[in-house]
Structures are given as structure tokens and as C-alpha cells.
Design goal:
Chain lengths: 270, 223
Amino acid sequence: MKSIRNHLSLVIALLSILFSIQIFTIVDRSIESYKAKLANNYSVIVVSQRKMSNDVILNINKMILNSNELSPDAVIKRLDKNMDEKNIQLLKLTLPRFYKLNLKYYPTPKEIKKLTSDLLANKNITKVEDYSHTHDTTYKLLLLFKRVVFVFSVSIFIVTTLLIFKELRIWQFKHSERMSIMGLFGAPVWLRSAVLFRLSIVDALIASALAFGLFTYLASSRFILEQFKNIGINVVVFDPVNDFLILLGIAVSLSVLLASMIVLGHKEEI
Amino acid sequence: MDKVIIARDISLSYSSSETIINQASFTINSGSFVFITGASGSGKSTLLKSLYGALKPKQGSLIVGGVELKKVSNSKLNFLRRHIGIVFQDYKLVKEWNIEKNIMLPLIINGYEKGVTQNQVEILLKHVRLKHQSGKYPQELSGGEQQRVAMARALAHNPILILADEPTGNLDDYSSELIWKLLEGANEQLNTTVIVVTHHIPQSMNVDYKHFHIEYGSINEVN
């Protein structure tokens, strides 16, 4: 019981840090995935006085993925009941060309402005419809969400770091007597602090294992998957290899840092 | 005869306080039994602390086991301490270890093999009459029993030097007698140098001993 209590406070603090890091990672991935989805659906419409080749359009801005000329037939069809064939052909010749541009990624409002000005700099292009108002709102919402989660994660990180420092003081008090006694019998620093490092690494392993269990469960949770499905994105909630290794690395580094600080802060009693 | 301790004009003081030992000189031969006496606060324990390097001399030269302690590196100090057994007045046992592990401490530090360690601990537990309590923790023992554990720990690695700070200060007669016997035994049978800080030299000492008395910061040999 006492042994569990010895581990619990550091394990909980480490687990909170791992939790906040992984949650931030999931949110970041969700936003990136959602941005990719928006980029697929987002396009800019360009009106040109003359026919433009795909290469010419692609050279205007590197962000442009491809361009498709929009056929005017659908509009003309609505008019053709009242017009004879000759007039229709004439109208076809005088109508401007419409192009739909797809982008490589979901741009920032600044990038959209730049794209619009680059397009309008071409003498053939007379109008660009970038749907910037809708675009700006969506983009700002995404950014706001990301920032809120970031602030939340940083807050958890700060609070748990303070908890860890409090734990550090308790450990310092608890272990300094044993370390001093070992020092009096000539134990080198590594041997004096071996128990401390062993404890901290064990705690880091426990916290990482708990995080692994928790996120593996969340990754397969029907509720979570449904939420992503509802917004039409596919997100890796937890990669059991890469994410676990990152979390394990963070937990071990933090707890070894904690133990090192205790060892460095230890003063031999006279 | 080899000298295990050579002190020349050493002055000892804790930082920013008055000098406790003032320019004292003395030598202690290897294999001798030494008592250091003096009134409370005279500097007996301070002198002992300087002998295991917990307090460095402000002046002079202090050589213990061939190691100059005035300017000693941590690794050299650790090396020296591995050959010293210390008995403290407040026992200094590790609370979270049972008495068997406490006795094992210097053996582990000195890198003894597990089999040797176990064997040695069993012998020592028998010597200090605590074999039946080997699994207990220090806080479960009486003061006398704890000091016997500390004594066993000090003897475990057959040190060249034993430093004992009032080892029988608050003990019952039985434990006191046992501790003196063990110190005498180590001195006689293993030729270990024993330095004991005490208020009273026991009447029934069976070994020849040297006696230093500390008064007003100076150390004088008593004949």
C-alpha cells in the first residue's frame, strides 16, 4: 500500500502531462485532416477574357494544384429556347472563359489575398471569386479551436509541472537521508542515486503504460470514431508505435530530469 | 609502525563560526585503540567528522589512510570511506531497509559478491545477537539493538579504521558490553584501528589504548 502511494503522485502527474500532449496531438491532427478536407472542397473561380492553358495558370502561383475550364453549356441551355442557333454560337464566342482552380492545401487568408492579386496581375483575368468571407470565418474558427486546446494543454502542463516540483521536494526529503548514509560509507554518486533513478524510471514506465491503455481504448471507442465520422475526417487517435515511443520518451526524460535535480540538489550533511 | 592518521596543525570550524579545534597535531598508529574524551561541545565529534572527511580542516594537514583530506576529490574520499567503518551516536540506519540490508550496505558499496555478503551478514547478526530479528526494520528495534546493527554494519567490510561516536551513549549495560567486546575483538583479531569518542572510558578494557583529551580547542595525549 505504502509502495503504491510512493508511486502514485508522480505517476498521476506524468500521466496528466502525457494526456495533455496526446490530446493536443489529436486536435492538431484533426485540424490538419479537416484542412485537407476543406482544401479538397475549396476552389477559386477565375474569369478570363481569353482561353488560358493549364501550364500558364499553374505558373501564376505555386499553390494552384490544377485548373478546369467550366463549360458555359449549362447556362446557354437555359437561354436556347428563345434564341436561334446562330445567336447561340455568337454568344458562345463572346462569352468569357471560366476556370475553377483547386489548391494544394487549405490556404491562410493572407495566402488567399496573395493568390487573388497574382491572378489579377495576369492581363487576361478580369475577375477572381475567392469566397474569402466564408473562407476566413472557417479558418479563424479552426485557429481559435487550436489555440484554445493549446492553452488548455499548456495550463495542464504548467500545473502538473508544479505538482512534480512539489513531489521533487518530498522525494528530496525522503531520499536525502539514505543518500547521505550511503555517502558516509563511500558509495559513489551513481550508486547513491540508483534507487531514485530506478523509482523514477519505473514511474515513467507505469505512466506510459497507462497512457497506452487509455489512448488505445479511446482510439477504438465507437463514440470517438463517430465524432470524426460526423465531420467527415479520418484521424489517427493513437499510433501504438510512434505515439507510444514519443510519450515514453517524454515520461522517461521528465522523470530522469526530476531525479537528476534531486541528486544535484543533494548536499551532504555535516 | 604505520601511521594511519597524521594531523599537523589542523584547525577545525564550521563555516562562519568560531574555531573548535585550534592548530592540533597528533598521530595514530595502525592497529591502535584510541579514546578521545572531552566535555560536551569540546569538539570530539567535530574531530571525528574531520577524520571521515565530512568536515575539511581550515588549516593544517590531515592525512587519513594516506589520503590528504584538506583538498580531497570526491572519488578519493569515497575510496577512503569504503575502508572506514563508522558508528554514529544516532545510529544512522536506513529506515526503509531491514537490518539485514542495513548491515549489507558497506559490502554492496565495496562490490562483494552476493554469496559472500549473505554469509558475512549472517555471521555479524550472530555476533550482535540479532539473528532472530534480521527481517525487522530499524524503527522496530530498541536503541540498543539499533546500535548493535550499526556496529555490525561498521564491521561488515573488515575496515582498516573504525570511528565510533559515543557508541554506548544511551545504551543499556548488555548492549554497551557487547559493543565494547566487538570493538576490542576487531582491534585484537583483525588489527583494525579503532577510534572512539566517549565521555567515559570503560573500566573493563582488555586492550592497550591511547587516550586523547580535548580541552579549549587543543588535543592532548593523556598518559
